[in-house]
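Ticket #4471: complex job returned nothing on first submit. Input attached below:
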Amino acid sequence: MGVFYHIGQYCLLMVRVFKKPEKNSIYLNQLVLEIEKLGINSVGIVAVISIFMGGIITLQLTYNMVSPLMPNYIIGLGNRDTLMLEFSSTVLSLMLAGKVGSHIASEIGSMRVTEQIDSMEIMGVNSASYLILPKIIAVVFMSPLLFIISVACGLVGGLITGPLSGVVTVATYVNGMTTQFNPFYAYFSIIKTLVFGFLIATVPAYLGYYVQGGALEVGRASTKSVVNTSVLILFFDLVLTQLLFK
Amino acid sequence: MIEIKNVCKSFEGRDVLKDISTVFEKGKTNLIIGQSGSGKTVLLKSIVGLIEIDCGEILFDGRDNRRMSFKEQKLLRQEIGMVFQNGALFDSLTVEENVRFPMDMFTNMTMKEKVSRLNFCLDRVNIKASNNLYPSEISGGMRKRVAIARAIALNPKYLFCDEPNSGLDPVTSILIDALIKEITSEFDITTVINTHDMNSVMEIGDKILFISEGKKCWEGNNTQIFNTRNRKLNAFVFASPFSKKFREIRQMEDDE
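Support reply: We reran it on our side without changes. The output follows.
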Protein backbone atom coordinates (compact mmCIF):
# COMPACT_ATOMS: atom_id res chain seq x y z
CA MET A 1 0.00 0.00 0.00
CA GLY A 2 2.88 2.33 0.81
CA VAL A 3 4.16 2.08 -2.75
CA PHE A 4 0.79 3.12 -4.20
CA TYR A 5 0.58 6.01 -1.74
CA HIS A 6 4.00 7.26 -2.86
CA ILE A 7 3.18 6.82 -6.55
CA GLY A 8 -0.04 8.80 -6.08
CA GLN A 9 1.67 11.51 -4.08
CA TYR A 10 4.49 11.69 -6.65
CA CYS A 11 1.96 12.07 -9.51
CA LEU A 12 0.09 14.82 -7.64
CA LEU A 13 3.38 16.63 -7.06
CA MET A 14 4.20 16.39 -10.77
CA VAL A 15 0.81 17.91 -11.63
CA ARG A 16 1.72 20.89 -9.42
CA VAL A 17 5.23 21.07 -10.86
CA PHE A 18 4.02 21.30 -14.46
CA LYS A 19 1.50 24.09 -13.82
CA LYS A 20 2.00 27.37 -15.65
CA PRO A 21 4.83 29.36 -13.99
CA GLU A 22 3.95 32.60 -12.21
CA LYS A 23 6.61 34.56 -14.06
CA ASN A 24 8.63 33.11 -16.93
CA SER A 25 11.60 35.44 -16.47
CA ILE A 26 12.14 34.31 -12.85
CA TYR A 27 11.94 30.65 -13.86
CA LEU A 28 14.39 31.27 -16.69
CA ASN A 29 16.90 32.77 -14.24
CA GLN A 30 16.43 29.76 -11.98
CA LEU A 31 16.93 27.44 -14.94
CA VAL A 32 20.27 29.02 -15.82
CA LEU A 33 21.40 28.70 -12.20
CA GLU A 34 20.31 25.05 -12.03
CA ILE A 35 22.04 24.20 -15.33
CA GLU A 36 25.22 25.57 -13.84
CA LYS A 37 24.75 23.96 -10.44
CA LEU A 38 23.53 20.52 -11.50
CA GLY A 39 24.97 20.15 -14.99
CA ILE A 40 28.08 22.21 -15.63
CA ASN A 41 29.44 21.55 -12.15
CA SER A 42 29.22 17.81 -12.89
CA VAL A 43 31.30 17.99 -16.08
CA GLY A 44 34.60 17.67 -14.20
CA ILE A 45 33.72 14.52 -12.27
CA VAL A 46 32.04 12.99 -15.34
CA ALA A 47 35.18 13.61 -17.42
CA VAL A 48 37.56 12.21 -14.79
CA ILE A 49 35.49 9.06 -14.17
CA SER A 50 34.96 8.48 -17.89
CA ILE A 51 38.67 8.82 -18.73
CA PHE A 52 39.56 6.25 -16.07
CA MET A 53 36.72 3.92 -17.05
CA GLY A 54 37.65 4.18 -20.74
CA GLY A 55 41.21 3.19 -19.81
CA ILE A 56 40.07 0.34 -17.55
CA ILE A 57 37.62 -1.05 -20.15
CA THR A 58 40.42 -0.96 -22.75
CA LEU A 59 42.78 -2.90 -20.49
CA GLN A 60 40.10 -5.42 -19.47
CA LEU A 61 39.17 -6.03 -23.10
CA THR A 62 42.82 -6.50 -23.99
CA TYR A 63 43.59 -8.96 -21.20
CA ASN A 64 40.32 -10.92 -21.41
CA MET A 65 39.19 -10.90 -25.02
CA VAL A 66 42.13 -10.52 -27.38
CA SER A 67 43.34 -13.81 -28.77
CA PRO A 68 44.92 -14.92 -32.08
CA LEU A 69 41.36 -15.58 -33.29
CA MET A 70 40.17 -12.01 -32.57
CA PRO A 71 41.25 -8.92 -34.49
CA ASN A 72 42.96 -6.26 -32.33
CA TYR A 73 40.57 -3.52 -33.41
CA ILE A 74 37.95 -5.22 -31.16
CA ILE A 75 39.52 -3.23 -28.28
CA GLY A 76 38.50 0.16 -29.68
CA LEU A 77 35.16 -1.17 -30.87
CA GLY A 78 34.40 -2.86 -27.55
CA ASN A 79 35.35 0.21 -25.58
CA ARG A 80 33.14 2.44 -27.75
CA ASP A 81 30.10 0.17 -27.55
CA THR A 82 30.45 -0.48 -23.82
CA LEU A 83 30.68 3.23 -23.16
CA MET A 84 27.77 4.08 -25.43
CA LEU A 85 25.41 1.31 -24.45
CA GLU A 86 25.81 1.10 -20.71
CA PHE A 87 28.61 3.00 -19.04
CA SER A 88 28.00 6.58 -20.22
CA SER A 89 24.24 6.26 -19.95
CA THR A 90 23.42 3.91 -17.05
CA VAL A 91 26.53 3.87 -14.84
CA LEU A 92 26.98 7.59 -15.24
CA SER A 93 23.33 8.17 -14.33
CA LEU A 94 23.83 6.06 -11.19
CA MET A 95 26.73 8.29 -10.31
CA LEU A 96 24.68 11.41 -11.00
CA ALA A 97 21.88 9.98 -8.84
CA GLY A 98 24.42 10.10 -6.01
CA LYS A 99 25.87 13.51 -6.74
CA VAL A 100 22.94 15.50 -8.16
CA GLY A 101 20.11 13.50 -6.56
CA SER A 102 21.36 13.79 -3.01
CA HIS A 103 22.01 17.50 -3.59
CA ILE A 104 18.43 18.05 -4.77
CA ALA A 105 16.89 16.05 -1.89
CA SER A 106 18.94 17.78 0.78
CA GLU A 107 18.44 21.26 -0.70
CA ILE A 108 14.66 20.95 -0.95
CA GLY A 109 14.44 19.00 2.32
CA SER A 110 16.35 21.70 4.19
CA MET A 111 14.06 24.33 2.72
CA ARG A 112 11.07 22.32 3.95
CA VAL A 113 12.28 21.88 7.54
CA THR A 114 13.36 25.52 7.84
CA GLU A 115 9.89 26.66 6.66
CA GLN A 116 11.25 28.33 3.51
CA ILE A 117 8.77 26.33 1.42
CA ASP A 118 5.89 27.36 3.73
CA SER A 119 7.00 30.94 3.39
CA MET A 120 6.80 30.67 -0.43
CA GLU A 121 3.36 29.08 -0.24
CA ILE A 122 2.08 31.89 1.98
CA MET A 123 3.31 34.45 -0.56
CA GLY A 124 1.22 32.65 -3.18
CA VAL A 125 4.17 31.09 -5.02
CA ASN A 126 3.69 27.57 -6.41
CA SER A 127 6.72 26.29 -4.49
CA ALA A 128 6.67 22.86 -6.17
CA SER A 129 6.92 24.39 -9.60
CA TYR A 130 9.38 27.13 -8.64
CA LEU A 131 11.77 24.73 -6.92
CA ILE A 132 11.45 21.57 -8.99
CA LEU A 133 10.62 22.51 -12.59
CA PRO A 134 13.93 24.32 -13.32
CA LYS A 135 15.79 21.34 -11.82
CA ILE A 136 13.95 18.84 -14.03
CA ILE A 137 14.59 20.88 -17.20
CA ALA A 138 18.23 21.44 -16.22
CA VAL A 139 18.98 17.76 -15.52
CA VAL A 140 17.02 16.45 -18.52
CA PHE A 141 18.73 19.00 -20.77
CA MET A 142 22.21 18.34 -19.38
CA SER A 143 22.04 14.52 -19.21
CA PRO A 144 22.51 13.89 -22.98
CA LEU A 145 25.31 16.45 -23.03
CA LEU A 146 27.04 14.75 -20.12
CA PHE A 147 26.55 11.44 -21.94
CA ILE A 148 28.32 12.80 -25.04
CA ILE A 149 31.14 14.24 -22.91
CA SER A 150 31.45 10.92 -21.09
CA VAL A 151 31.68 8.86 -24.30
CA ALA A 152 34.27 11.26 -25.71
CA CYS A 153 36.36 11.22 -22.52
CA GLY A 154 36.08 7.43 -22.21
CA LEU A 155 37.34 6.99 -25.75
CA VAL A 156 40.21 9.37 -25.03
CA GLY A 157 40.94 7.37 -21.85
CA GLY A 158 41.24 4.23 -23.93
CA LEU A 159 43.31 6.04 -26.51
CA ILE A 160 45.78 7.09 -23.81
CA THR A 161 45.88 3.83 -21.85
CA GLY A 162 45.94 1.32 -24.74
CA PRO A 163 49.00 2.61 -26.62
CA LEU A 164 50.79 3.64 -23.38
CA SER A 165 50.54 0.14 -21.96
CA GLY A 166 51.61 -1.28 -25.29
CA VAL A 167 48.58 -3.51 -25.76
CA VAL A 168 47.27 -1.76 -28.88
CA THR A 169 48.54 0.82 -31.36
CA VAL A 170 46.84 4.18 -31.87
CA ALA A 171 45.93 3.25 -35.44
CA THR A 172 44.35 -0.09 -34.44
CA TYR A 173 42.46 1.51 -31.56
CA VAL A 174 41.12 4.33 -33.78
CA ASN A 175 40.25 1.80 -36.46
CA GLY A 176 38.21 -0.19 -33.91
CA MET A 177 36.61 2.98 -32.59
CA THR A 178 35.31 3.88 -36.07
CA THR A 179 34.40 0.40 -37.29
CA GLN A 180 30.80 -0.84 -37.50
CA PHE A 181 29.33 2.22 -35.82
CA ASN A 182 25.60 1.80 -35.27
CA PRO A 183 23.87 5.19 -34.81
CA PHE A 184 20.94 3.46 -33.10
CA TYR A 185 23.18 2.87 -30.08
CA ALA A 186 23.55 6.63 -29.71
CA TYR A 187 19.79 7.29 -30.08
CA PHE A 188 19.02 4.47 -27.63
CA SER A 189 21.41 5.86 -25.03
CA ILE A 190 20.20 9.43 -25.45
CA ILE A 191 16.61 8.26 -24.88
CA LYS A 192 17.81 6.44 -21.77
CA THR A 193 19.64 9.49 -20.43
CA LEU A 194 16.53 11.63 -20.91
CA VAL A 195 14.44 9.16 -18.86
CA PHE A 196 17.18 8.77 -16.24
CA GLY A 197 17.61 12.55 -16.06
CA PHE A 198 13.91 12.91 -15.28
CA LEU A 199 14.20 10.30 -12.52
CA ILE A 200 17.38 11.88 -11.10
CA ALA A 201 15.58 15.22 -10.75
CA THR A 202 12.09 14.15 -9.69
CA VAL A 203 12.57 11.27 -7.24
CA PRO A 204 14.94 13.19 -4.90
CA ALA A 205 12.79 16.32 -5.31
CA TYR A 206 9.73 14.34 -4.23
CA LEU A 207 11.51 12.86 -1.20
CA GLY A 208 12.93 16.25 -0.21
CA TYR A 209 9.66 18.13 -0.73
CA TYR A 210 7.67 15.93 1.65
CA VAL A 211 10.33 15.51 4.32
CA GLN A 212 9.09 16.01 7.87
CA GLY A 213 11.20 16.61 10.95
CA GLY A 214 14.71 18.00 11.12
CA ALA A 215 18.27 17.55 9.92
CA LEU A 216 18.23 13.80 10.58
CA GLU A 217 15.19 13.29 8.34
CA VAL A 218 16.78 15.43 5.62
CA GLY A 219 19.83 13.16 5.73
CA ARG A 220 17.59 10.09 5.54
CA ALA A 221 15.67 11.53 2.60
CA SER A 222 18.95 12.22 0.84
CA THR A 223 20.16 8.63 1.31
CA LYS A 224 16.76 7.24 0.37
CA SER A 225 16.72 9.34 -2.78
CA VAL A 226 20.04 7.85 -3.96
CA VAL A 227 18.89 4.28 -3.28
CA ASN A 228 15.44 4.70 -4.84
CA THR A 229 16.69 6.59 -7.89
CA SER A 230 19.41 3.98 -8.50
CA VAL A 231 16.91 1.11 -8.33
CA LEU A 232 14.51 2.97 -10.64
CA ILE A 233 17.32 3.72 -13.11
CA LEU A 234 18.21 0.03 -13.31
CA PHE A 235 14.56 -0.95 -13.62
CA PHE A 236 13.96 1.51 -16.46
CA ASP A 237 17.23 0.43 -18.08
CA LEU A 238 15.84 -3.09 -18.20
CA VAL A 239 12.47 -1.94 -19.55
CA LEU A 240 13.94 0.40 -22.17
CA THR A 241 16.48 -2.16 -23.34
CA GLN A 242 13.72 -4.70 -23.82
CA LEU A 243 11.42 -2.19 -25.54
CA LEU A 244 13.93 -0.49 -27.82
CA PHE A 245 16.05 -3.50 -28.77
CA LYS A 246 13.12 -5.82 -29.40
CA MET B 1 -10.17 42.24 10.24
CA ILE B 2 -10.00 38.46 10.57
CA GLU B 3 -12.95 36.55 11.98
CA ILE B 4 -12.49 33.03 13.24
CA LYS B 5 -15.69 31.07 13.74
CA ASN B 6 -15.89 27.68 15.47
CA VAL B 7 -12.62 26.41 14.09
CA CYS B 8 -11.63 22.84 14.90
CA LYS B 9 -8.75 20.68 13.80
CA SER B 10 -7.62 17.22 14.76
CA PHE B 11 -4.61 15.12 13.84
CA GLU B 12 -5.03 11.34 13.81
CA GLY B 13 -8.04 11.53 16.12
CA ARG B 14 -6.40 13.96 18.55
CA ASP B 15 -8.27 17.27 18.83
CA VAL B 16 -5.76 20.11 18.59
CA LEU B 17 -8.16 23.01 18.08
CA LYS B 18 -11.58 22.82 19.73
CA ASP B 19 -14.28 25.20 18.55
CA ILE B 20 -12.22 28.40 18.58
CA SER B 21 -13.94 31.68 17.74
CA THR B 22 -12.47 35.18 17.92
CA VAL B 23 -11.95 38.39 15.98
CA PHE B 24 -8.59 39.94 15.17
CA GLU B 25 -9.01 43.64 14.58
CA LYS B 26 -7.47 45.88 11.97
CA GLY B 27 -4.70 48.26 13.02
CA LYS B 28 -4.09 46.32 16.23
CA THR B 29 -1.51 43.81 17.36
CA ASN B 30 -3.43 40.66 18.18
CA LEU B 31 -1.57 38.10 20.27
CA ILE B 32 -2.17 34.38 20.55
CA ILE B 33 -0.61 33.08 23.75
CA GLY B 34 -0.48 29.70 25.40
CA GLN B 35 1.85 26.99 26.57
CA SER B 36 3.92 24.95 24.16
CA GLY B 37 1.68 22.36 22.55
CA SER B 38 -1.51 24.31 23.29
CA GLY B 39 -2.34 24.62 19.59
CA LYS B 40 -1.36 28.23 18.88
CA THR B 41 0.97 27.39 15.97
CA VAL B 42 -1.70 25.13 14.46
CA LEU B 43 -4.19 27.99 14.79
CA LEU B 44 -1.81 30.46 13.12
CA LYS B 45 -1.00 28.02 10.30
CA SER B 46 -4.70 27.30 9.86
CA ILE B 47 -5.44 31.01 9.50
CA VAL B 48 -2.79 31.50 6.82
CA GLY B 49 -3.94 28.36 5.01
CA LEU B 50 -0.93 26.11 5.58
CA ILE B 51 -3.15 23.68 7.51
CA GLU B 52 -6.64 22.81 6.36
CA ILE B 53 -9.22 23.11 9.14
CA ASP B 54 -11.81 20.38 9.78
CA CYS B 55 -14.71 22.70 10.54
CA GLY B 56 -15.53 26.36 11.04
CA GLU B 57 -14.78 29.49 9.05
CA ILE B 58 -11.89 31.91 8.73
CA LEU B 59 -12.96 35.21 7.19
CA PHE B 60 -10.51 37.81 5.88
CA ASP B 61 -12.59 41.00 5.78
CA GLY B 62 -15.63 38.84 5.11
CA ARG B 63 -13.92 36.60 2.52
CA ASP B 64 -13.89 32.90 3.36
CA ASN B 65 -10.58 31.35 2.40
CA ARG B 66 -12.14 27.91 1.91
CA ARG B 67 -14.86 29.09 -0.49
CA MET B 68 -12.46 30.90 -2.78
CA SER B 69 -11.29 29.74 -6.17
CA PHE B 70 -7.60 28.88 -6.54
CA LYS B 71 -6.99 32.24 -8.25
CA GLU B 72 -8.74 34.18 -5.47
CA GLN B 73 -6.78 32.27 -2.84
CA LYS B 74 -3.57 33.20 -4.61
CA LEU B 75 -4.56 36.87 -4.64
CA LEU B 76 -5.46 36.71 -0.94
CA ARG B 77 -2.06 35.20 -0.16
CA GLN B 78 -0.40 38.19 -1.77
CA GLU B 79 -2.16 40.34 0.85
CA ILE B 80 -0.55 38.28 3.61
CA GLY B 81 2.92 38.80 5.06
CA MET B 82 4.37 36.26 7.42
CA VAL B 83 7.39 36.25 9.69
CA PHE B 84 8.41 32.73 10.68
CA GLN B 85 10.07 31.72 13.92
CA ASN B 86 13.53 31.49 12.35
CA GLY B 87 12.89 34.07 9.68
CA ALA B 88 12.62 31.45 6.89
CA LEU B 89 14.77 33.59 4.63
CA PHE B 90 15.86 31.90 1.43
CA ASP B 91 19.42 30.69 2.05
CA SER B 92 20.51 31.00 -1.56
CA LEU B 93 19.45 34.65 -1.86
CA THR B 94 21.06 37.74 -0.38
CA VAL B 95 19.22 40.09 1.99
CA GLU B 96 18.33 42.34 -0.95
CA GLU B 97 17.13 39.46 -3.13
CA ASN B 98 15.07 38.05 -0.26
CA VAL B 99 13.18 41.32 0.23
CA ARG B 100 12.82 41.82 -3.53
CA PHE B 101 11.56 38.26 -4.10
CA PRO B 102 7.80 38.97 -3.71
CA MET B 103 8.16 42.08 -5.89
CA ASP B 104 9.99 40.10 -8.60
CA MET B 105 7.40 37.36 -8.44
CA PHE B 106 4.13 39.27 -8.36
CA THR B 107 4.60 42.80 -9.63
CA ASN B 108 5.52 44.42 -12.89
CA MET B 109 7.49 47.16 -11.15
CA THR B 110 10.55 48.54 -12.91
CA MET B 111 13.94 47.87 -11.35
CA LYS B 112 14.06 51.51 -10.16
CA GLU B 113 10.72 51.15 -8.40
CA LYS B 114 11.77 47.85 -6.87
CA VAL B 115 15.02 49.32 -5.55
CA SER B 116 13.16 52.28 -4.10
CA ARG B 117 10.63 50.00 -2.35
CA LEU B 118 13.43 47.71 -1.20
CA ASN B 119 15.35 50.60 0.34
CA PHE B 120 12.19 51.84 2.01
CA CYS B 121 11.49 48.41 3.56
CA LEU B 122 15.08 47.92 4.72
CA ASP B 123 15.23 51.45 6.15
CA ARG B 124 11.96 50.82 7.94
CA VAL B 125 13.47 47.86 9.80
CA ASN B 126 16.82 49.63 10.31
CA ILE B 127 18.92 47.35 8.12
CA LYS B 128 21.85 49.19 6.68
CA ALA B 129 24.82 48.14 4.52
CA SER B 130 23.85 44.47 4.57
CA ASN B 131 22.13 44.21 1.20
CA ASN B 132 24.62 41.77 -0.27
CA LEU B 133 25.00 39.51 2.74
CA TYR B 134 23.47 36.04 2.85
CA PRO B 135 21.16 34.97 5.72
CA SER B 136 23.93 32.79 7.16
CA GLU B 137 26.12 35.89 7.48
CA ILE B 138 23.74 37.96 9.61
CA SER B 139 22.60 37.73 13.24
CA GLY B 140 19.31 36.23 14.46
CA GLY B 141 17.86 39.67 15.19
CA MET B 142 18.81 40.96 11.75
CA ARG B 143 17.29 37.87 10.15
CA LYS B 144 13.98 38.63 11.89
CA ARG B 145 14.13 42.22 10.71
CA VAL B 146 14.86 41.17 7.13
CA ALA B 147 11.93 38.75 7.38
CA ILE B 148 9.71 41.64 8.50
CA ALA B 149 11.00 43.76 5.60
CA ARG B 150 10.15 40.94 3.18
CA ALA B 151 6.73 40.51 4.78
CA ILE B 152 5.83 44.19 4.26
CA ALA B 153 7.37 44.43 0.76
CA LEU B 154 4.00 44.14 -0.98
CA ASN B 155 2.07 46.32 1.47
CA PRO B 156 0.17 43.45 3.11
CA LYS B 157 -3.24 43.83 4.70
CA TYR B 158 -2.49 41.05 7.17
CA LEU B 159 0.76 40.35 9.00
CA PHE B 160 1.40 37.10 10.86
CA CYS B 161 4.37 36.50 13.13
CA ASP B 162 5.22 33.13 14.62
CA GLU B 163 7.15 33.68 17.85
CA PRO B 164 9.10 36.67 16.55
CA ASN B 165 11.14 36.95 19.76
CA SER B 166 12.28 33.38 20.16
CA GLY B 167 16.04 33.08 20.46
CA LEU B 168 16.57 36.83 20.83
CA ASP B 169 18.03 38.76 23.73
CA PRO B 170 15.60 40.98 25.72
CA VAL B 171 16.83 44.23 24.14
CA THR B 172 16.46 42.96 20.58
CA SER B 173 13.09 41.42 21.49
CA ILE B 174 11.80 44.80 22.63
CA LEU B 175 13.05 46.40 19.40
CA ILE B 176 11.31 43.75 17.28
CA ASP B 177 8.07 44.18 19.25
CA ALA B 178 8.22 47.94 18.88
CA LEU B 179 8.88 47.59 15.16
CA ILE B 180 5.89 45.28 14.64
CA LYS B 181 3.67 47.61 16.66
CA GLU B 182 4.80 50.65 14.66
CA ILE B 183 4.32 48.93 11.33
CA THR B 184 0.87 47.73 12.35
CA SER B 185 -0.41 51.19 13.17
CA GLU B 186 1.53 52.95 10.40
CA PHE B 187 0.13 50.76 7.61
CA ASP B 188 -3.16 49.99 9.38
CA ILE B 189 -2.77 46.23 9.00
CA THR B 190 -4.23 43.33 10.94
CA THR B 191 -1.35 41.78 12.83
CA VAL B 192 -1.54 38.40 14.53
CA ILE B 193 1.40 37.30 16.66
CA ASN B 194 1.99 33.91 18.15
CA THR B 195 4.04 34.26 21.31
CA HIS B 196 4.70 33.13 24.85
CA ASP B 197 6.91 36.09 25.62
CA MET B 198 5.35 38.04 28.50
CA ASN B 199 7.24 41.20 27.58
CA SER B 200 5.42 41.20 24.25
CA VAL B 201 2.13 40.66 26.04
CA MET B 202 2.75 43.68 28.26
CA GLU B 203 4.18 45.92 25.52
CA ILE B 204 2.10 45.29 22.45
CA GLY B 205 -0.92 43.17 23.39
CA ASP B 206 -3.83 45.25 22.03
CA LYS B 207 -5.84 42.06 21.93
CA ILE B 208 -4.81 38.78 23.55
CA LEU B 209 -6.24 35.33 22.94
CA PHE B 210 -5.19 32.69 25.47
CA ILE B 211 -5.40 29.10 24.32
CA SER B 212 -5.08 26.08 26.57
CA GLU B 213 -5.31 22.46 25.36
CA GLY B 214 -6.76 23.64 22.04
CA LYS B 215 -9.58 25.66 23.62
CA LYS B 216 -10.06 29.37 23.88
CA CYS B 217 -9.62 30.07 27.58
CA TRP B 218 -9.63 33.82 27.76
CA GLU B 219 -9.46 36.97 25.65
CA GLY B 220 -8.83 40.57 26.53
CA ASN B 221 -6.04 43.16 26.40
CA ASN B 222 -2.74 43.78 28.15
CA THR B 223 -4.37 45.70 31.00
CA GLN B 224 -7.11 43.18 31.69
CA ILE B 225 -4.71 40.22 31.66
CA PHE B 226 -3.16 41.24 35.00
CA ASN B 227 -6.50 41.52 36.76
CA THR B 228 -8.15 38.35 35.55
CA ARG B 229 -9.24 35.55 37.86
CA ASN B 230 -8.84 32.90 35.19
CA ARG B 231 -6.74 30.28 37.00
CA LYS B 232 -5.18 28.74 33.91
CA LEU B 233 -4.22 32.14 32.57
CA ASN B 234 -2.79 33.25 35.90
CA ALA B 235 -0.74 30.07 36.12
CA PHE B 236 0.65 30.85 32.66
CA VAL B 237 1.21 34.59 33.06
CA PHE B 238 2.66 34.43 36.57
CA ALA B 239 4.75 31.32 36.07
CA SER B 240 8.15 32.98 36.51
CA PRO B 241 9.47 34.33 39.86
CA PHE B 242 9.85 37.73 38.19
CA SER B 243 6.19 37.95 37.20
CA LYS B 244 5.11 36.60 40.61
CA LYS B 245 7.06 39.44 42.25
CA PHE B 246 5.47 41.88 39.82
CA ARG B 247 2.00 40.64 40.82
CA GLU B 248 2.81 40.97 44.53
CA ILE B 249 3.97 44.56 44.07
CA ARG B 250 0.84 45.37 42.07
CA GLN B 251 -1.39 43.84 44.75
CA MET B 252 0.42 45.79 47.44
CA GLU B 253 -0.09 49.00 45.47
CA ASP B 254 -3.78 48.17 45.01
CA ASP B 255 -4.21 47.46 48.75
CA GLU B 256 -2.62 50.76 49.65
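The domain at 2-226 of chain B is CATH 3.40.50.300 (Rossmann fold). Closing as resolved unless it happens again.
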